[in-house]
Design a protein that fits this description.
Elements (H helix, E strand, L loop, with lengths): L1 H7 L9 E2 L4 E3 L4 E5 L6 E4 L2 E3 L4 E5 L2 E6 L7 E7 L2 E8 L4 E6 L5 E4 L2 E4 L5 E6 L2 E9 L2 E9 L4 E5 L2 E6 L3 E2 L4 E9 L9 E4 L5 E3 L14 E8 L7 E9 L4 E9 L5 H6 L1 E2 L4 E2 L9 H8 L15 H13 L2
Parallel strand pairs: 2-9, 10-16, 18-24
Antiparallel strand pairs: 1-3, 3-7, 4-5, 4-8, 6-7, 8-9, 10-13, 11-12, 11-14, 14-15, 17-19, 19-22, 20-23, 21-22, 23-24, 25-26
């Protein structure tokens, strides 16, 4: 049991010229091993050598060996070649395997099970068949997936940690807002290739930095602008953002309204230009509060109502609470 626990936590030694595609296998799955050595590797079960029959496939830089093992020989196995040894575990087919591939030291949670990805960015969960919520957190970015696990089947998820948020959840006809994507990709990307779905007649403006490379395992941000047509119907619109290089899709909503809440106006007011800028990130600042104070007892622009002392005090308290 202690060896199995160490394997589940990712505490295993990797040889220089020996690789496994998975940490765990179901009983019905063939075991595959990559080796730079042309001779078949040696298998061990319960500490004893096991006489496996290997299929051999030649690659440009090495060899892949594949074998089917008896379905009743479960638990921890070890495979060795002259370059080193690796351990893996075999499970019965009554369960399903959820395998996550992402960034090392990512915290993963499925139900009451929690894992941390190993130094190769891998982790797995042995689960009963069913639908689960997978939560992954790395570098302050949390992402959630709904995954279906089937009996006797492996489900692999590439964990690209992405968030997409509009600069304002409420906008005006004829205004422009921004959509910001925060991403921690599992590998370096030459650019953030993304697709955004908008209503017919709405315009998306892509900034030049969208084509800059994104380093792997580092949090990056990219933003683009969305122009709302003057004649847009009032109501709530749903948007979809899909990244091309990693399997991830996010939806969010934006409401088009005739007037805005006072908090939205103050947090997006450009004091220098004395104008509303919904494309800038929302932030309550001292300068914006000073500007808002001059409207106490008067109609605040774009709100359609009088800005009260209570409104101002609530915003001031929120500003004081911000770090």
């Amino acid at each position: 049991m202690s060896v199995l626990l160490a394997l589940l936590l990712g505490a295993f030694w990797v040889g220089e010229a020996l690789e496994l595609p998975h940490l765990a296998f179901l009983a019905s799955e063939p075991v595959e091993v990559f080796s730079s050595n042309p001779d078949p590797p040696q298998l061990f079960w319960s500490g004893d050598p096991f006489p496996a029959t290997w299929e051999k496939f030649s690659l440009r830089q090495g060899f892949v060996f594949r074998t089917l093992l008896p379905p009743d020989l479960l638990g921890v196995w070890t495979v060795c070649d002259p370059g080193g040894c690796l351990s893996f575990v075999r499970f019965p087919n009554e369960k399903g395997l959820l395998e996550v591939q992402g960034i090392p030291t990512t915290t993963l949670r499925v139900g009451n099970q929690q894992r941390v990805t190993d130094r190769q960015g891998q982790a797995f969960f042995l689960l009963d068949p069913g639908t689960y919520e997978l939560v992954a957190e790395v570098q302050g970015v949390q992402s959630t997936w709904t995954v279906e696990v089937q009996q006797g089947r492996r489900r692999t998820v590439t964990a690209a940690y992405v968030q997409a948020e509009p600069s304002s959840p409420v906008v005006l006809p004829g205004s422009t807002f921004s959509v910001t994507v925060s991403i921690v990709p599992p590998r370096e990307l030459t650019s953030l290739r993304a697709e955004i779905s908008v209503p017919e007649g709405w315009e998306v403006v892509w900034p030049p930095e969208f084509h800059d490379p994104l380093p792997g395992a580092v949090r990056s941000e990219r933003s683009w602008l969305v122009a709302v047509p003057e004649g847009s119907a009032l109501g709530t619109y749903t948007f979809g953002v899909k990244t091309v290089d990693v399997p991830w899709t996010k939806t969010f909503t934006v409401t088009v309204a005739r007037v805005l809440p006072p908090r939205t106006v103050v947090g997006h007011w450009d004091v220098g230009a004395n104008s509303l800028d919904l494309a800038q990130p929302f932030k309550l600042t001292f300068e914006r509060l000073l500007w808002a104070q001059t409207y106490v007892g008067r109609v605040l622009p774009y709100t359609g109502r009088t800005f009260t002392r209570k409104d101002f005090e609530e915003l001031a308290r929120e500003w004081e609470r911000e770090p």
